[in-house]
Amino acid sequence: MSKAIYIVTTEPNSGKSIVSLGLMQLLLGRTAKVGYFRPIIDDVPNGKTDNHIDTVLSYFNVDMKIEEAYAYTRSQVVQLKNQDKDDEIVGHIIHKYKTIENKFDFVLVEGTDFSGEGAIIEWDINVLIAKNLGIPAVILASGKNKTLDELVGNLYMAYDSFKEKGVDVLLIVANKVQPENVTIVSNELKEKLPDDVLVGTIPVNTILGSPTLKEIAQELDAQVLFGEDYINNQVGSFSVGAMQLRNYLTHLKKDSLVITPGDRADIILGALQANISTNYPSLSGIVLTGGLIPEDSIIKLIEGLSDIIPILSVARGTFFVTNKIGTIRPRIYAENTEKIQTSIQEFEKYVPTEELAEKLITFKAKGITPRMFQYNLLQKAKSSKKHIVLPEGLDERILLATKKLIDADAVTITLLGNKEQIISKLKELDIDLNTNDINIIDPTASVHFLDYATTLFELRKHKNVNLAMAKDLMEDVSYFGTMMVHKGHADGMVSGAIHTTQHTIRPALQFIKTKPGVSIVSSIFFMCLPNRVTVFGDCAINPNPNSEQLSEIAISSAATSAAFGIEPKIAMLSYSSGASGVGEDVDRVRKATEIIKEKRPDLKVEGPIQYDAAVDAKVGLSKLPDSEVAGQASVFIFPDLNTGNNTYKAVQRETGALAIGPMLQGLNKPVNDLSRGCTVDDIFNTVIITAIQAEGF
After folding, report:
1. Domain DRTGG, which positions (predicted)?
2. Of 49, 259, 561, 684, which has the fewest beta carbons less than 10 angstroms from its beta carbon?
3. Residues 175, 304: one domain?
4. How confident is the model at residue 367 (pLDDT cuts 50, 70, 90)?
5. Burial class of residue 531, CB neighbours in 10 A (0-12, 13-18, 19+)
6. Which domain holds residue 684?
């Protein structure tokens, strides 16, 4: 299922940015990576960038290039529509969106601004885009200059238009409502709309409704004479300094902008003095009109002041400048953090964010989607923040994954290795990881080294291991890391990026050992397919399990599946389905299935069964019509390592599925193995599932 939300407005100047910024903040608090996409943007001059995109990508540090975040400019769409190329428009938008969707856990899609001609056509385009992307919508309208009936009617018509086209609407927002009318508007909307549609009503905010000195300077093509460091000052009001100073001072208000001819030294100096006086309100800036610059003596006096507000010089006269400032449409841009933070605060205050987040997470969810699964994994890990040791502290992928894990605030990390070498490696690779945020331990220099070696000696002396041998073994990072877990100095270990599976798990088998009642350590992969998550086992540990071992692998895999929110429906795979096949291999699977049913009659299990019958409802119905598993299996148990390992890799490579694991099952404490071909994301995900495993110990 698609994981995205589409923000659409019914008109220009509705304050759509407040919803975009608020939603980004909401989403980033609940998922690892959020992408941003604007299907159609306004035309921008050569060398310039779209302000909306720049603001979102910059402030939230979204890992996207600006050109990746949009599909078309407005003029490009008009040109293509004139050529009857609507299909091409939609196709390209879908392609751009899918590219972003593949990189991120969630995508915030922002519709057009209605700043051009043809509002009806533009509305239809927004509905069409949302429908074709298969994502729900948030609809926004401004209450400015509208009666209650007009505002509510406008929003209901917009809602009805989307629903008629098959697009679900999760939230309706009335923005720029007079504060005294917020409750009235909310109640009217709730009464008019279905109960499952959320309502937010945001009052007019003077900070968001006023331009900054920077915006004024850009609109007037002004020269900044002084105070450029404060160019983002907010303008609360403006007035012309044409009267005598003693009278003008009485008109000053908080965050006022003073407009005066450039030769009025009395007004200029009086305003600057009033700004620093405790008896007058602070000002936002001064605009000098007529292209007049104060005399050198006045400039020198201003330069000597300790506190200078922005002073702009414009060529046009006072009348033109005053009227022009009155028409400036305030914007939110990347450097204006005050407006951004105010927008987020207003959104969080007046929109039911918790209910909205729940709707976003559960929208059309059937079972657990891959993104839902990964979201849940990260949230579970962050909720307990377990301590994971990574023995291969000098590996580039381990260091990059550590940076990602620390940034996500998901776990506490200990790296094993020489601290100076690790710091040097971080600098060499230009990885911005603060070593104060992690633990680095050199095993041989550790205060626990002798205790660990002595413990190993006591545990293994019956195997003819003496203390000297134990010390030698404890110099090995795999032994040291595993002993940290055994001693409770770490909650879990992940290794194998440069070590073999045997090297990684041998210490765990020697002294962490298996859980009571478990005789075999096995592994599973979480296979995140395009529309569901399944469990594959065993694809990494046991070459040729017998029937008893296969049954134990299946029971352990079912427990893992349930623990991670996937209802276990076990398919015991073979080259035959049901009673039709004969032979040693299929009989081994058949016997394993019987053992499972005897040991755990509560589990849904089918075997032997072929892969197609396990996943395809029609095939499953034809081959095993009475099965609870056929056609809907979620846990796949392979008959041997050869089949399992090759199948998971084939599925992963051919479908683009994310394979999370391997995750080892059956140990008393979590130790997990990586493939030596693992990626940074593989390491990240394996650490996350190891942290979740550790919650059970």
Report:
1. 215-325
2. 49
3. no
4. very low
5. exposed
6. 367-513+668-696
